[in-house]
Design brief:
Length: about 110
């Protein structure tokens, strides 16, 4: 049985951080999508998606993150994903090799 997952959201001075913990499988995606949508509806200056505490990220979760990243770009919200899992970095490079869906800035630290 997979590890339980949690999604923690904090907001501070125009910056929203979403921290994912545990295995983010397809059952977690609706909760992830809701958290990302709520964070972006607050029109933050920046959105930080912290994936450092996850051992597994499903393809559908990666899709939700990339969709939120594109939505954030359209709203001129900076997105930072510090030290993303290798598979997500490769997926981002494959889907958006020039970073066009992530303008004005989307940093993968």
């Amino acid at each position: 049985m997979p590890d339980p997952y949690s999604i923690n959201v904090t907001a501070n001075s125009g910056r929203v951080t979403i921290q994912l913990c545990g295995e983010v499988d397809k059952e977690a995606v609706p909760q992830l999508q809701a958290a990302l949508a709520a964070a972006l509806s607050a029109a933050p200056d920046s959105l930080r998606i912290d994936l450092t505490e996850i051992p597994y990220l499903s393809l559908s979760a990666m899709g939700a993150i990339l969709a939120a990243r594109a939505r954030a770009a359209r709203a001129h919200t900076d997105v930072v994903i510090p030290d993303p899992p290798r598979v997500l970095r490769k997926f981002m490079d494959l889907v958006d090799p020039d970073g066009n869906s992530s303008k004005p800035t989307a940093a993968v630290a």
